[in-house]
Design a protein that fits this description.
The protein has one domain. The protein contains four helices and no strands. The chain is 75% helix and 0% strand.
């Protein structure tokens, strides 16, 4: 019974990661159509691309970690340490992009008088 609950939790986590990745891909596609200056849109597009790549990395490394733990595919020569480290690095890159990569809004009217 505990194994069934564990598989369900892992399945839910992977499903949520897939949903977040699809939602992020849609947001990345439409990030160039936003309001603001060209520089703001470019910075927003860069932020969305980094977030999409890191979410994809989280999904891949987490899935490989689960596969290597369960020993489902013994032909994949991947260690748990590598996949765990990859998941954490991808997660930290995602947090960096989400929190610290804020695009700066440029005020063009101020630049006209200087």
């Amino acid at each position: 019974m505990d194994e069934m609950i564990g598989f369900a939790v892992v399945g839910i986590i992977i499903a949520c990661l897939i949903y977040a990745l699809i939602k992020q891909i849609k947001e990345t596609k439409h990030s160039g159509n936003g309001v603001g200056s060209a520089l703001f849109r470019k910075q927003m597009a860069r932020k969305n691309k980094v977030m999409t790549a890191s979410l994809f990395g989280i999904l891949v490394f987490y899935t490989l970690n689960i596969v290597s733990i369960l020993n489902i595919a013994s032909t994949i020569p991947v260690s748990n340490n590598f996949t765990g480290l990859g998941t954490w690095v991808s997660f930290l890159v995602y947090l960096y992009a989400r929190i610290l990569m804020k695009p700066k809004q440029v005020d063009h009217s101020r630049n006209l008088y200087n």
